[in-house]
Write a structure and sequence with these properties.
The protein has 433 residues and is α/β, with parallel strands linked by helices. The protein contains 15 helices and 13 strands. Helix 3 crosses helix 4 and helix 8 packs across helix 12.
Length: 433
């Protein structure tokens, strides 16, 4: 099978989407041509899925650059909350036309794709897909790692939400298959839509790579170490865990003896603002600078346990943090501070423990037994959870499921046939919609 893929994010760009897309395509048993970005403004990390590009049949890197003047204008527009600015659907909209042109060059070179797949975030990737699918009448799969207009961490404003909702629904109507990392995210994004959208949808979870460092015995006499890897963003802060630690110190201080919580790579000082860290015992909560992706995997494997912190918001738990897939691959137990929903379900299903974000008493109550478990694992190491639950997130297995999805769309199996009028040329549909 020949697959034409579009993903702005791809290694060495530092982004969760880059890691997951590269890993998925690397293990896909198909001939893949990719259009991705060359973003000089982004951070690069050569340790992210090294060698992923060599696995591709073709890779066209389309530059995305913003001049200094444009960056300044963007900053001012963001402060003034100018409606629609950089929100149609995002700041990468200018990348769409050159990305379409690059895909056309791949096709003209003789690559005849059986199916097209686009990966958002950013959602501009799906605008590339809509244009290509309309021009060439090729089967199209659109994968969403995050919400679009319903994303609690993106402020579109009333007008922006209205316009983007029309764009979003146009993608739902146009794509032959809609994929999401969790059922919770699918149901949240497609809520209120016609049954046809659900019928054309499927679940494709994030994955961990088979080459990830695996858990090793930890020397006795060293502190029990629980690590959080990566930055915190949106409403996420260290406040919930610090509050829980204070409760434990008051009630059962011995539970925290010879214990260390490490936060690795948090770049935003606001993540610690108001957390109440003053007065905590020295060495109980420590920070470490950002490390390379490969080093982060090693730190996971060298931990006693791992910490996942979700954001508190009024909606359901819909997110599958990409780092959670790597956590699972490390073989270390996970303590998740997460709303009921996707992340909490995945953590429990793979042998971890969970407490709600907004319940400090429950977090403290869960942390004590979790620390006891980690001490017991020092004596008798064991992998958390059933093997079949962890294997469901292994990259070769996820890629095999992805191939089945692509094959079904390419053959247009019953239930995947396009709706009437879904192949309106993109330029015309933009006017209509």
């Amino acid at each position: 099978m020949k697959v034409l893929a579009v993903s702005f994010a791809f290694p060495p760009l530092v982004a969760p989407r880059a890691i997951q897309v590269a890993r998925l395509l690397r293990h896909l048993d198909a001939e893949v041509a990719l259009v991705c970005a060359s973003d000089d403004s982004g951070m690069n990390d050569p340790s992210i899925e090294a060698g992923a590009e060599a696995r591709l049949a073709n890779c066209r890197r389309v530059p995305f650059r913003r001049s200094r003047t444009r960056r300044r204008v963007d900053a001012v527009a963001a402060i003034l909350r100018v409606p629609l600015w950089n929100r149609l659907p995002d700041m990468y909209r200018s990348w769409v036309a050159p990305a379409v042109a690059a895909a056309e060059e791949i096709i003209r070179s003789g690559f005849r794709p059986d199916v097209l797949v686009t990966f958002g975030n950013p959602m501009s990737d799906h605008l590339v897909g809509r244009e290509l699918a309309a021009r060439h009448r090729m089967p199209w799969v659109a994968h969403f790692s995050d919400p679009w207009t319903g994303n609690p961490y993106h402020a579109y404003g009333p007008l922006g939400s209205l316009v983007n909702r029309r764009l979003e629904h146009a993608i739902y109507r146009s794509a032959d298959r809609l994929l999401f990392p969790t059922a919770e995210l699918r149901d949240y994004m497609l809520r209120g839509g016609p049954p046809a959208w659900h019928q054309r949808s499927g679940i494709l979870p994030h994955s961990f790579g088979p080459g990830s460092p695996v858990a090793r015995p930890i020397p006795h006499g060293t502190p029990i170490t629980i690590r959080h890897i990566g930055t915190l963003y949106g409403s996420r802060t260290v406040g919930p865990i610090v509050g829980a630690l204070r409760r434990l110190l008051d009630a059962e201080p011995n539970r925290l003896a010879c214990t260390r919580f490490e936060f690795v790579g948090i770049s935003d000082p606001g993540s610690f603002s108001g957390a109440g860290m003053d007065g905590l015992p020295d060495g109980l909560v420590v920070t470490r600078p950002r490390v390379s992706y490969r080093e982060s995997l090693a730190l996971m494997a060298e931990s006693d346990g791992l910490l996942l912190m979700d954001g508190a918001w009024s909606g359901p738990g819909i997110f599958f943090p990409a780092k959670l897939a790597d956590y699972i691959g490390s073989g270390r137990p996970v303590f998740g501070i997460a709303q009921p929903g996707a992340a909490a379900r995945i953590v429990r299903g793979t042998g971890g423990a969970v407490a709600p974000v907004d319940a400090p008493g429950d977090i403290a109550g869960g942390l004590g037994p979790f620390l006891d478990r980690l001490r017991a694992l020092r004596r008798e190491p064991a992998l958390p959870g059933p093997a079949e639950s962890r294997d469901a997130y292994a990259a070769p297995n996820v890629a095999a499921g992805f191939l089945r999805e692509l094959d079904a769309v390419a053959r247009c199996e019953p239930g995947l046939a396009p709706d009437l009028g879904r192949r309106i040329p993109a330029a015309l549909s933009s006017i209509i919609l």
